[in-house]
Design a protein that fits this description.
Elements (H helix, E strand, L loop, with lengths): L3 H12 L4 H19 L12 H5 L1 H13 L1 H9 L1 H6 L5 H21 L2 H10 L4 H26 L5 H17 L3 H7 L5 H9 L2 H9 L5 H27 L1
Helix pairs in contact: 1-7, 2-4, 4-9, 4-10, 5-9, 7-9, 7-14, 9-10, 9-13, 9-14, 13-14
Length: 244
């Protein structure tokens, strides 16, 4: 029997065992709704779309999702419960995938609860809802990428704080990788192929394309591949710790 459904349900329910879930949802929803209106000029733009709304998501995720993912494995290691968890008759890959999917579902729930923004823009104008749905898909994939990094780095340290800071730094690098200022630091001594590779790793560039409604298969494949690689690294790290 595939244990994934049971494991995911258990991990997802654990988020609501403490007030942490409600605090996270409240903070995310308040910021996700307030920033477009107070800092993004949602009304002033006079555009029937959610471009301003999605523009803040990479930065919201950068602050909030490492905090969500920092405890996935570090807390298990700190409390010693990871030894019990690793003795279960379940492959490490299933454990890694279940924790990630539960966190991703929780992030997806937070994103789903922003539906009043969709209702608002449809009330005010006639937006391209296909492009908006593409933006939501891109946001969900972006959240998955942040969580995959956070989960993997959480397996390295017993300290959630160290896991948070590590994930924050790595995710920040991934967000700004394609920024002109970053590329300028390499331009002049690095080959153009390296610059192109660095630019192609940028979360921001790829997410902006999807959020405008441009569903390029290369962007989708990038996020799926990125998530897969970090989950595989997570499983390898856990197996190495188990072998120690």
């Amino acid at each position: 029997m595939n244990p994934l459904r049971t494991l995911v349900a258990r991990e997802f329910a654990a988020y609501f065992a403490t007030p942490l879930a409600l605090v996270f949802l409240l903070v995310f929803l308040v910021l996700a709704a307030a920033l477009p209106f107070y800092m993004g000029g949602f009304y002033e733009n006079e555009q029937a779309d959610l471009q301003v709304f999605f523009a803040f998501h990479p930065w919201l995720y950068l602050l909030l999702l490492p905090a969500l993912g920092m405890r996935l494995w570090s807390e298990e290691r700190r409390s010693g419960s990871i030894e019990l968890l690793m003795t279960l008759p379940v492959a490490t890959g299933w454990l890694v995938l279940s924790k990630f999917l539960a966190a991703w579902l929780f992030a997806g729930l937070a994103l789903l609860l922003t539906f009043p923004m969709l209702l608002t823009v449809n009330f005010l104008g006639s937006p391209d809802n296909g492009a908006i749905l593409a933006g939501y898909l891109g946001s969900l994939l972006l959240a998955g990428a942040f969580l995959a990094v956070s989960a993997c780095l959480s397996a390295v340290s017993k300290s959630p704080v160290v896991a948070f800071i590590s994930a924050l730094v790595v995710c920040f690098v991934c967000v700004v990788a394609g920024h002109g200022m970053v590329l300028d630091a390499f331009r002049g001594w690095a080959p153009q192929a390296w610059l192109d590779l660095l630019a192609s790793m940028s979360f921001l560039t790829r997410f902006q394309a999807i959020s405008r409604g441009v569903l390029d298969g290369r962007d989708l494949l990038f996020f799926v591949s990125f998530i897969t690689c970090w989950l595989l690294a997570n499983a390898v790290l856990l197996d190495l710790k188990k072998a120690d």
